[in-house]
């Protein structure tokens, strides 16, 4: 269950599309007298669509559907279709079989034609041809021009289906293609039941914008004669509809009304197919039906995947290797086929897939099944019954019922998986989380190059993750895991299919000047509410987004947090702590719930700021919606494992390669210092320079009402003149805190009165207290308490070589506290040596500069003033403006008015030691 976003700006992109298309359908319904109309679904398929256009389907030898002709026809009739056609790919076998059996049918097929200059295959719905003409059409389809000229010469009507959807991504496709289509086609499918609303509305507005003058100009520009394709530029384009159904679930629910004058009298002597062909040629057509975004396609793919799981046959390894397609296509097909073939050995899983298929078709599971299944799975049966009931008794709510039921089923199964894992851990049936270490995990990541070792093991070391027995692995695969994967896969595939040419859709919308997708980013993070520097910077970014109502919304997974403006909260499916790393809370979100939020919110790009579960979610959304994704790099993990583990260089390189693979999946990486930018674009990580953006955290204003802490409140006997160091951070080894005892001891040789105050908590707190018994530990401090400490103490000491930025340095500067730090990464981009602080190389240097600072009181006040000046360089407006620009988002008017005359400070060179 999610806590809904409370936002000032409600996304209206989807709502505007729905309203625009609904108005069009209402007007179409009023065009003709229903008594003089035939009802037909111009676009549907059955089992004779046995050679799919999708490459993977051909490699795996999968038909597009197993739907029998009889079942399809009965569904069309049940949905009120008075004229029938079946448009299988590149053949009319089903139509000929129906005609041979005495059934009246409009002969049709969906031919795949080749557009040579674009290296593109497009579909053309074709009707009313003879058997001999079908042979010629199949020969002519190797060239779209020859095909359409022949159809025009033979008076064979054609329709261009889903004009904005192509079965491939192709850099050659541009707007000139659509100029040619406008010249070559008279009829266009503007309503396709399996395509999304955005494509349909774009198609509608494009066709309605085509004037005779435009078409004539396009013809001249491309040296095409409209008459040779049977096109009259002076006539408006004819708009049609069809279900594009492959499963028999939605056949006939979308389609076209065909106006035939004096229809009832003519039906006494003429066949519906003949009258339908006449109306099609004349263009007396009005589309009808409902478009449900990706929901219909999701249901169809779920039904298809359920059948694939039970019906797939071994495609053969040699056949896969020799088939046309890239190496990755073949590897993917090999993996999919092996997983599905192994799944067929699991009777429980196969039965469930059969039940899913039956339920989607309106058939309930056997009543006895409820008594046979375990308590954990009764919920699954209840959801399938709910779907079957909606199909039979409440068809208008069927789509919403299926998608809601599948969503709840996905959540239930994942909660069940988490519960079983927790039970196994608690009962010592599994490996305790505390036993995992970075070293162990890293050393087990390598996969052997020998296939026998990979699949069969070497018979010696069974504890190595490389020695995987595939048979045993599949035997142990859990039923809920398999079903969850199928549910998530159908959702991903249905949406990915619709948006695989998103760039083209954006370009098309820009060309039309309307229906442009909203530009909004969803920012995923695991650490917004943690008590560390990253959460502090993220909270500051969220406040700035809320204040200026920017086109970015945060999303976190948390069991207690509540939604705010620009903040989504989803509840975790499971959560656990990794105590080895400082009680770090790991929360597992519902990936499909986040996908629904992304879709409903009108987002078109992703930002992710953590490498944990949210990184997986980000990559899932990236693939699902085909949107740009960005990663905000807060942590240097290579440096982390260097300081907290005993991994050698080779093992650290293994982690680095994994990080490189992860970061390369994103379109852009935001970094917080020059060193990281150079590292990511250097030979070790090899990211493109254009892919890496330098950014910074911004400061928060100083609270002028805040009073400085009195030193004697913290340190008994202290006075205003007592030299006091201050540090605020997470107390853990990688922060360099164990340098502090040596630093303070060396400095006290010349400053015996030197004191230190330490704020924060973490896994190394007790150990540090033992090493520094005379230090003052104040624990975790809130924002106001920290401000008082910054204002009342003297010098901030920052011994970390790990931090990528150093928020606490800026916090100290805001309150006029100079800082001493090592000359590395983040600090050296912020601190100006001997101006507002010191940059040193080692412990001795740090101790010496501390002594210098307290022995030159005349310089202290100047450094405090210059620290405040430096903090002013990190104002929110220019930093956030550049951040928006790098994300490809528009800046709000308030930012444009406040635009700085100079570039952001983090792009300037710094003066360092």
Automatic annotation (TrEMBL):
SUPFAM superfamilies in UniProt: PHP domain-like, UDP-Glycosyltransferase/glycogen phosphorylase
Ranges for domain Glycosyltransferase subfamily 4-like N-terminal: 532-682
The keyword Disulfide bond is assigned to this record: no
Sorted UniProt keywords: Transferase
GO molecular-function terms, A-Z: glycosyltransferase activity
Ranges for region Disordered: 894-913
Occurrences of domain Glycosyl transferase family (ranges): 723-870
A Pfam family: Glycos_transf_1
PANTHER family on file: SULFOQUINOVOSYL TRANSFERASE SQD2
Protein name: Glycosyl transferase family 1
Organism: Paraglaciecola hydrolytica
Organism taxonomic ancestry: Bacteria, Pseudomonadati, Pseudomonadota, Gammaproteobacteria, Alteromonadales
């Amino acid at each position: 269950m999610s806590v809904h976003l409370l936002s000032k700006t409600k996304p209206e992109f989807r709502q505007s599309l729905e309203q625009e298309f609904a108005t069009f359908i209402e007007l179409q319904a009023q065009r003709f007298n229903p008594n003089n109309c035939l009802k037909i679904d111009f676009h549907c398929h059955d089992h004779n669509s046995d050679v799919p256009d999708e490459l993977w389907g051909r490699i795996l030898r999968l038909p597009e559907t197993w739907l029998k002709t009889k079942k399809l026809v009965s569904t069309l009739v049940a949905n009120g279709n008075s004229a029938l056609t079946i448009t299988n790919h590149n053949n009319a076998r089903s139509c000929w079989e129906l005609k041979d059996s005495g059934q009246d049918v409009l002969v049709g097929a969906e031919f795949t034609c080749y557009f040579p200059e674009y290296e593109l295959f497009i579909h053309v719905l074709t009707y009313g041809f003879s058997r001999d003409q079908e042979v010629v059409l199949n020969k002519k389809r190797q060239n779209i021009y020859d095909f359409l000229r022949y159809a025009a010469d033979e008076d064979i009507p054609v329709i261009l289906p889903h004009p904005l959807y192509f079965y491939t991504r192709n850099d050659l496709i541009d707007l000139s293609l659509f100029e040619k289509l406008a010249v070559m086609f008279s009829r266009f499918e503007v309503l396709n039941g399996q395509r999304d609303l955005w494509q349909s509305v774009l198609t509608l507005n494009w066709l309605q914008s085509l004037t005779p003058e435009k078409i004539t100009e396009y013809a001249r520009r491309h040296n095409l004669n409209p008459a040779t394709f049977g096109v009259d530029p002076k006539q408006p384009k004819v708009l049609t509809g069809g279900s594009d159904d492959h499963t028999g679930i939605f056949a006939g629910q979308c389609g076209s009304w065909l106006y035939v004058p004096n229809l009832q009298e003519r039906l006494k002597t003429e066949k519906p197919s003949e009258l339908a062909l006449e109306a099609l040629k004349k263009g007396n057509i009005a589309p009808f039906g409902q478009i449900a975004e990706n929901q219909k396609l999701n249901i169809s793919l779920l039904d298809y995947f359920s059948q694939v799981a039970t019906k797939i046959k071994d495609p053969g390894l040699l056949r896969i290797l020799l088939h046309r397609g890239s190496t990755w296509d073949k590897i993917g097909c090999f993996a999919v086929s092996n997983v599905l073939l192994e799944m067929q050995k699991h009777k429980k899983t196969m039965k469930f897939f059969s039940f899913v298929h039956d339920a989607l078709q309106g058939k309930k599971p056997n009543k006895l099944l409820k008594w046979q299944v375990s308590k954990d799975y009764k919920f699954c049966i209840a959801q399938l019954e709910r779907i079957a009931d909606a199909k039979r008794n409440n068809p208008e709510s069927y789509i919403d019922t299926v998608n809601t039921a599948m969503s709840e089923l996905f959540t239930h199964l994942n909660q069940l998986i988490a519960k079983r894992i927790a039970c196994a851990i608690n009962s010592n049936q599994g490996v305790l989380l505390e036993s995992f270490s970075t070293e162990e995990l890293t050393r087990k990541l390598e996969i052997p190059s020998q296939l026998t070792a990979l699949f069969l093991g070497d018979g010696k070391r069974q504890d190595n993750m490389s020695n995987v027995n595939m048979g045993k692995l599949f035997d142990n695969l859990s039923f809920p895991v398999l079903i969850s994967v199928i549910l998530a896969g159908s959702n991903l595939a249905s949406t990915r299919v619709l948006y695989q040419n998103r760039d083209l859709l954006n370009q098309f919308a820009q060309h039309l000047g309307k229906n442009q997708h909203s530009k909004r980013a969803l920012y995923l993070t695991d650490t917004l509410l943690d008590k560390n520097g990253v959460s502090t910077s993220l909270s500051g970014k969220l406040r700035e987004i809320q204040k200026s109502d920017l086109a970015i919304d945060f999303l976190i997974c948390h069991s207690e947090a509540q939604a705010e403006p620009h903040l989504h909260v989803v509840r975790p499916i499971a959560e656990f702590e990794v105590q080895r790393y400082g009680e770090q809370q790991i929360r597992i979100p519902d990936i499909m719930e986040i996908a629904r939020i992304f879709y409903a919110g009108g987002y078109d790009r992703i930002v992710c700021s953590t490498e944990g579960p949210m990184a997986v979610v980000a990559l899932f959304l990236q693939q699902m919606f085909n949107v740009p994704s960005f990663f905000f790099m807060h942590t240097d993990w290579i440096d982390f494992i260097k300081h907290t583990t005993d991994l050698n260089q080779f093992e650290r390189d293994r982690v680095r390669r994994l990080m490189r693979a992860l970061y390369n999946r994103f379109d852009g990486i935001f970094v917080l210092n020059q060193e990281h930018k150079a590292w990511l674009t250097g030979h070790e990580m090899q990211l493109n320079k254009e892919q890496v953006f330098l950014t910074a955290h911004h400061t928060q204003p100083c609270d002028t009402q805040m009073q400085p802490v009195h030193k004697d409140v913290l340190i008994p006997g202290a006075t205003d003149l007592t030299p006091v160091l201050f540090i605020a951070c997470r107390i853990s080894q990688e922060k360099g805190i164990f340098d502090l005892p040596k630093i303070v001891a060396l400095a006290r040789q010349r400053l015996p009165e030197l004191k230190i105050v330490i704020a924060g908590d973490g896994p190394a707190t007790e150990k540090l207290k033992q090493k520094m018994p005379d230090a003052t530990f104040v624990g975790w401090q809130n924002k106001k308490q920290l401000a008082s400490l910054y204002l009342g103490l003297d010098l901030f000491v920052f011994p970390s070589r790990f931090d990528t930025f150093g928020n606490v340095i800026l916090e100290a500067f805001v309150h006029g506290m100079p800082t001493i730090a090592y000359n590395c990464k983040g600090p050296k981009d912020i601190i100006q040596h001997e101006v507002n602080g010191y940059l040193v190389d080692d412990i001795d240097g740090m101790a010496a500069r501390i002594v210098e600072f307290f022995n030159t009181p005349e310089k202290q006040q100047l450094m405090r003033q210059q620290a405040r000046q430096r903090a002013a360089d990190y104002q929110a407006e220019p930093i956030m403006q550049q951040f928006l620009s790098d994300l490809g988002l528009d800046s709000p008017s308030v930012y444009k008015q406040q635009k700085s005359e100079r570039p952001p400070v983090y792009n300037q060179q710094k003066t360092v030691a």
